[in-house]
Write a structure and sequence with these properties.
Blueprint lengths: L2 H6 L3 E5 L7 E5 L37 E5 L7 E5 L27 E6 L13 H21 L5 E8 L11 E7 L4 H17 L3 H11 L2 E4 L6 E5 L5 E4 L3 E4 L10 E5 L11 H22 L4 E6 L17 E6 L6 H6 L2 E3 L3 H9 L5
Parallel strand pairs: 2-15
Antiparallel strand pairs: 1-2, 3-4, 4-5, 5-7, 6-7, 6-13, 8-9, 10-11, 11-12, 12-14, 13-14
Helix pairs in contact: 2-5
The protein binds zinc ion (3 copies).
Length: 363
């Protein structure tokens, strides 16, 4: 598909997120309503070692004590340490301070930093696929350990902020893990809505979305003129497909270049990630990030793992929830329209974005 064809068909429609219908996206490709980040991409610090960096090899005594080191002896490949500035900690607050409409929940939690790689400025698509597999299996181990350590932990969120536009404050590559005493609203909404879909249809909505991406095709005509309004082809939303994972461009993408990675086989809990799963995930993740990096000329992003929370009753949600990774590249800033309406705005159609990502040649 050429650039001309990509911009030829303007779309202006509101798309409903199939999993969370309350979350809608205005796809408006004809005009750029949205301020773009015009500044050139933040210069990337590609140095492999920085003498003053507390996360670099040789400076281990400058971080809080390690919670886990992988491998446990010899040169480390990954280190997990306490976050010096935790968003939640195990210090007790006064639980009796709630009054009137000002309700609070005791801020118990854990906040850990995963030093992704010994090389200071390496980007994820430059890491070996087996290293990325090790990163995901290490995050799985930490998630399992955090749930096991305290029964008041309801949700564990694994995420990464990369680049200043995505909120990263330390340039050495790292991810974060936060264990929370509450289930965040975004996850709760996915769990609740996918359970409702399952009750109605007997199916997992995420499995249905994967099946649709792999097999559905249709042509929609304008009733009066007979003009083709939309053509959906098989595989149109697929960015990568491995033996165990698939990377998909959501039909109702909130962010222009958002991509989600899901296990092909139904699984609700990231804690059940197997060794073979981690290997294929490392491969699909690296290839997806390489595509984003090429198309965007350097990508700043957040990614996070949504997995079944451990709240009362969640066990019954095993058949209806399906864990996944959401990758959200930061290419624009939210406007008053978005903050005021709660509607996301996207000026590139997800179909065109998927086509461009697929066209990248990957080494
Ligand atoms: Zn460093
Ligand atoms: Zn499923
Ligand atoms: Zn999600």
């Amino acid at each position: 598909m050429t650039e001309g064809e990509i911009t030829a068909k303007a779309i202006r429609e509101i798309r409903i997120n199939p999993v969370v219908p309350g979350e809608s996206v205005l796809i408006a490709t004809a005009r750029s309503l949205r301020p773009k980040k015009e500044e050139p991409p933040a210069p990337h610090d590609a140095r492999s070692h920085v003498e003053t960096c507390p996360f670099c090899r040789g400076n281990e005594d400058r971080t809080p004590p390690a919670i886990a080191v992988v491998p446990p002896s010899g040169e480390w490949r990954l280190r997990i340490v306490e976050n010096l500035y935790p968003v939640l900690g195990d210090d007790q607050q006064n639980p009796n301070l709630a009054f009137g409409l000002q309700q609070t929940i005791d801020g118990y939690g854990r906040h850990e930093v995963v030093i992704d790689h010994a090389s200071h400025g390496i980007r994820v698509h430059e890491m070996d696929e087996d290293h990325l597999g090790l990163l995901f299996s290490t995050c799985r181990d930490r998630m399992a350990a955090l749930y096991a350590a305290n029964p008041s932990v309801r949700a564990v969120l694994v995420f990464k902020n990369f680049g200043p536009a995505a909120g990263a404050s330390i340039s050495h590559t790292h991810s974060q893990i936060v264990a929370m005493p509450v289930v965040p609203y975004n996850i709760e909404a996915e769990v609740r809505n996918s359970a409702a879909y399952h009750e109605k249809t007997g199916r997992c909505i995420f499995c249905s979305l994967i099946d649709e991406a792999l097999s559905f095709e249709a042509t929609f005509y304008d009733r009066e003129s007979g003009i083709v309004r939309r053509k959906i082809s098989v595989g149109q939303y697929i960015i990568e497909r491995g033996s165990r994972f698939i990377a998909i461009k959501p039909f109702a993408s909130r962010f222009e270049w958002e991509v989600q990675i899901l296990p092909l086989a139904h699984e609700a809990d990231f804690v059940n990630l197997s060794v073979d799963d981690a290997a294929d995930l490392g491969r699909i993740f690296r290839r997806t990030m390489a595509r984003l990096n090429t198309v965007l000329g350097g990508v700043q992003y957040n990614f996070f793992i949504h997995s079944l929370p451990y709240s009362p009753g969640a066990e019954a949600r095993q058949p209806s929830y399906h864990w996944h990774i959401e990758i959200c590249p930061r290419t624009s800033v939210p406007t008053g329209f978005e903050l005021g309406s709660g509607l996301f705005m996207n000026t590139i159609s997800p179909e065109d974005a998927a086509a461009r990502l697929r066209s990248v040649e990957i080494a």
